Amino acid sequence: MNSIAIINIAKGQLGLHEDDYRAMLVRVTGKASLRQMSERQKIAVIDELKRLGFRVRSGGKALPVAHKPYIRLIHALWKSCHRHGAIENGSREALRAFCKRFVAHGDDKIGVDPDLLTHDQATPIIKALREMEARAKGSSAA
To answer: Taking the model in full, what pTM does it have?
Structure first.
């Protein structure tokens, strides 16, 4: 989200009247208009709004929990491998790329969502993740 949108959301969340809002802008940056400000000045305004009580709220929808136990196991093993240092990037996109190596067999046109895997597709992924987790746990215990 861009800084102007964040500032406008914060202004509404804090219930700032226009005069108070403009006075705060001038106090922080010396300018009364967002259009005249550099990006650095807008960030300073956001920091001031946070100091005044603005809290960033997550507007995105949470992803639903998978209903199939083997899918939940893949996600749990992936997080565990990340926590133990077996993988650097614990993101969902990285998990998709990992699963794609097992399912797509080099076909770049196929997208693989781990939540849509069949049990047969998930089995080798689970096996590989368990092995990675065991190696990571073994190396951290040494």
So the answer is: 0.54
Q: What is the CA radius of gyration of the chain?
A: 23
Q: Which two tokens stand for residue 62?
A: 């949470």
Residue type, 42: K
Task: Give the pLDDT confidence of 18-38 residue by residue, as tens digits.
Answer: 999 999 999 999 999 999 999
Instruction: Give the integer Cα–Cα distance in Å for 139 and 89.
Output: 19
Confidence of residue 107 (pLDDT cuts 50, 70, 90): low
Q: Is 106 exposed, middle or buried (0-12, 13-18, 19+ CB in 10 A)?
A: exposed
Q: What is the mean pLDDT of the chain?
A: 86
Cα distances (angstroms) measured from residue 103 to each of 17, 76, 90, 99, 139 = 56, 19, 19, 6, 29
* Euclidean distance between CA atoms 47 and 137, whole angstroms: 41
Distance CA 42, CA 36 (A): 10
